[in-house]
Amino acid sequence: MTGIPRKICYISGTRADFGLMQTTLQAIQANSRFNLSVVATGMHLSEQFGLTVREIEAAGLTVSARIPVDIEMGTGAAMARNLAKTLDGCVTALETLQPDMMIVLGDRGEMLAGAIAAIHLNIPIVHIHGGERSGTVDEPVRHAISKLSHYHFVATPDARERLIRMGERSDHVFVTGAPGLDGLLELANIDRAALCASVNFDADKPLALFVYHPVLQEANNAEQDVSALLDACLRQDLQILALMPNSDAGNGGVRSALEKYAHHPHLRVLRHLPRAEFVSWMAVCEVMIGNSSSGIIEAASFGTPVLNVGTRQNLRERNANITDIHIAEANIDAVLRRILDAGRFNRANVYGQGDATKKIVDLLASLEILPDTLLKANVY
What we know:
Blueprint: E1 6-12, H1 15-30, E2 34-41, H2 53-58, E3 63-67, H3 76-97, E4 101-105, H4 109-120, E5 125-128, H5 138-148, E6 151-154, H6 157-165, E7 173-175, H7 184-187, H8 192-199, E8 207-211, H9 222-235, E9 239-243, H10 251-261, E10 267-270, H11 275-284, E11 287-290, H12 293-297, E12 306-309, E13 322-325, H13 332-342, H14 356-366
Parallel strand pairs: 1-2, 1-4, 2-3, 4-5, 5-6, 6-7, 8-9, 8-11, 9-10, 11-12, 12-13
Helix pairs in contact: 1-14, 3-4, 4-5, 9-10
């Protein structure tokens, strides 16, 4: 790499992906070897979802472009149309910013749109969290992003081997660990008493953190599934802090169920939590319930038991703290009781040790961009 700062662009569409990348993005920005720009789209720009673009700015990062989309209509057709709008906006943003590299994370449509735009503009793409499985629409989107990407920073050795079997060059796939684990324990610095006081809960009674997002293929069942989960939690005398879902198809059903129970004295429903508060709740609660990737990846670093529901995280690598159920087949009360009686787990996490940022920053600085880098082809 020359003395000229390498221009890095990251696209962010949700509070979730930004929370996972915040520490890494701040480290990139603070490093004189880089010039960082962030493109914000999706839920970040919606009042309904908390206008979380403000969190990007509050973190000291520059939002170089904003791509508004219509996310209020939570249907599969709306998701597909938004992908097209995001793609158009990404082309315009990237033509202006002219980055040397584009970073995308995970499996959402915003990332797929960014990758499609970048590869057509001859911009090398780095994909974080590729090679993982989930079994819903997220999985083919994730793999599509991987096939468009030139370099891969993966969370686990299994993910690396899967990408190599998919035809990616082995010398372009690096195990960095999950960036969302970096600084996680230090970030969870709000104690139980303060958290409970903020929502008028009793700190001496058990707590559940509830994060349930819709699944495209199961959108019609979302409301009844959430209702069944909330009923079971309340029968176990849990105090429930619930977050509103993302904008994917079926989110209306999840919202309706949460709003129906919102009057209950043991339930608090929030539109959004800053990441420090969110991970602090994850650290102190007796159980995390739902289908969020944070339960799969981050909760194990606190030893927090997780009741993972349905297919959204199907086939992902598991830590010992995960209990999987399908609502139609499970006695939710009995499963919850077993989890609560068993208590916390050892803090072992297959997704990494919290040192991904240094590895990612060093790789971004050292990776060579050669003429053949952009010539994507399966190696088999």
